[in-house]
Design brief:
Layout: E1 7-11, H1 16-27, E2 31-36, H2 39-51, E3 55-60, H3 66-80, E4 85-88, H4 103-131, E5 134-139, H5 152-172, E6 177-184, H6 190-193, H7 197-203, H8 214-225, E7 236-239
Parallel strand pairs: 1-2, 1-4, 2-3, 4-5, 5-6, 6-7
Helix pairs in contact: 1-8, 3-4, 4-5
């Protein structure tokens, strides 16, 4: 197993891509802590992982609160010991024309998608650097690289995370920490079901002409979390059906 003996913290692991990554890491031998706001969904994911023989724990956390973020880092470390792998996956994706985005939505998107990963990385990356090993994987989006209607705010928050990936590479890379990102395209998750016909239209802009399965994102995450990616630093891996290539 490619992650045997590793510890991993996956934010937003209660559904969608985060859940799929947590399950894949556990199958590969990692001890996993998932965080999220919904304890019932979180425990369901943990129970499913344990039923398959994996090791997982759920911790409630609010990505918009620095106090909660720091507490989740401490609690995860208390459960697992030093964290080897951090996946900054939790996020929200408000879709609306710019003129219709209210201040509360703007602030929530910035807090969840930028402040959360920033302060969680600040809490864990220095400890990885002290041990001279660690993997940080940021989940961004193709909308961070391609201008798309109704996605200005969402794309901007993930573009910030893309830049943080590069900055953290220069900061922590010299001490053995690999910081990389995955940029998914449209993926079949509960969160994208609400897009309805909009998802179908988006898929038609891709060379692949279909949405991804969550497992296709998780394979990239397992690679970046494993020793196979030890010489990969500061990369954003598009898993988007070819969208940003055209």
């Amino acid at each position: 197993m490619r992650l045997q003996g590793k510890t991993a913290l996956v934010t937003g692991g209660t559904a969608g891509i985060g859940q799929a990554i947590a399950e894949a890491f556990a199958r590969e031998g990692a001890q996993v802590v998932i965080t999220g706001r919904n304890a019932q969904r979180g425990q369901a994911v943990v129970d499913a992982i344990r039923a398959r023989g994996g090791q997982a724990t759920f911790l409630a956390a609010d990505q918009t609160s620095v106090e909660s973020i720091r507490r989740s880092a401490q609690e995860a470390t208390a459960v697992l010991g030093p964290i080897d792998i951090l996946v900054n996956n939790a996020g929200i994706f408000p879709l609306a024309p710019t003129a219709q985005v209210d201040e509360a939505t703007f602030d929530a998107a910035m807090a969840t998608n930028v402040k959360g990963p920033f302060y969680l990385t600040a809490a864990l990356a220095p400890r990885m650097a002290e041990r001279e090993r660690g993997k940080i994987i940021n989940i961004t989006t193709m909308a961070a690289h391609v201008g798309m209607p109704k996605m200005a705010l969402y794309g901007a928050t993930k573009a910030a995370l893309t830049l943080l990936t590069k900055s953290w590479t220069t900061e922590f890379g010299p001490n053995g920490v690999n910081v990389n990102a995955i940029s998914p395209g449209p993926t079949q998750t509960p969160g994208t079901e609400s897009m309805g016909e909009g998802l179908d239209q988006l898929v038609q802009t891709l060379p692949a002409k279909r949405a991804a399965f969550p497992s296709e994102i998780t394979e990239a995450a397992v690679f970046l979390a494993s020793d196979e990616s030890n010489f990969v630093h500061g990369a954003t891996l598009p898993v988007d059906g070819g969208r940003i290539a055209i």
